[in-house]
Amino acid sequence: MHPSLTSVELGRRLREVIPGAALEVLALPDAPNIRLALLQPSYPQHLLDSEAITKIMNTPMYWAFCWASGQVLARLIMDNPHYVKGRRVLDFGAGSGVAGIAAALAGAREVVVCDNDPLALLACQRNAQINGVTLKLSPAFESYEGAIDIILASDVLYDRENLGWLEVFLRRAPSVLVADSRIRDFRAKNYQLISTSSSYTLPDLDESQEFRQVKVYLGRVA
């Protein structure tokens, strides 16, 4: 799809859920080399009635935000390109595609963004165009059959039931980078903490301080 048509479609679908909302291309505070089309920071929250809020909760537009964990993981990759340079990368639960875009900018051989939300994949495509990189799109992790050298995952552990994915990742790839701000007692086998830093979601959701503390874990096949 042409970039302008992609942008129009994303904006239209966003307004179906959040009346009066718009997308704006923003540079990331923690990784200013990356720009994403995100929910305009001045979106009119005062226009949201109870029906609109219910609709937002039932149709979350994760791709219209760059979550704190995504910012931190993108910055870590840009500062430490050896994790992805020359490698085949898969960005799991990609959302806006921020981690995959960082990997592409850092010299990855190939980047696949995986998300089960078609709009998220459209957002990844648009954000790749903005940043001048190429991403492959995959709607399902289980059905992607290509080789993977490293998996990236940010803000996917919001539900403890998702912890099972950590073992699945290491059965699929020899290395994994996971960024998370939700799990306090992270004790996954074959994963080690490699960094802790503070960030926030863009646009800022005024989250509590505890959710602004992002930890990044490196998983490796034993």
Structural key phrases:
23% strand, two-stranded antiparallel sheet, 30% helix, 2 domains, Rossmann fold, 222 residues
Q: Strand content of the residues, in percent?
A: 15-25%
Q: How many domains make up the coordinates?
A: 2
Note the gap between the termini.
42 Å
CATH architecture of the largest domain: 3-Layer(aba) Sandwich
Mean pLDDT: 89
| Proportion of helical residues | 25-40%
- Helix-strand pattern, N to C? HEEHHEHEHEEHEEE
Gyration radius from CA atoms, angstroms: 17 Å
- Assigned CATH class of the largest domain: Alpha Beta
CATH topology of the largest domain: Rossmann fold
Number of strands: 9
Class from helix and strand fractions = alpha/beta
Q: What is the CATH homology-level superfamily of the largest domain?
A: Vaccinia Virus protein VP39
- Poorly predicted ranges (pLDDT <50, ≥5 residues)? none
Q: Order the strands across the largest sheet as they lie in space.
A: 5-4-3-6-7-9-8
What global shape is seen? globular
Largest sheet geometry: 7 strands, mixed
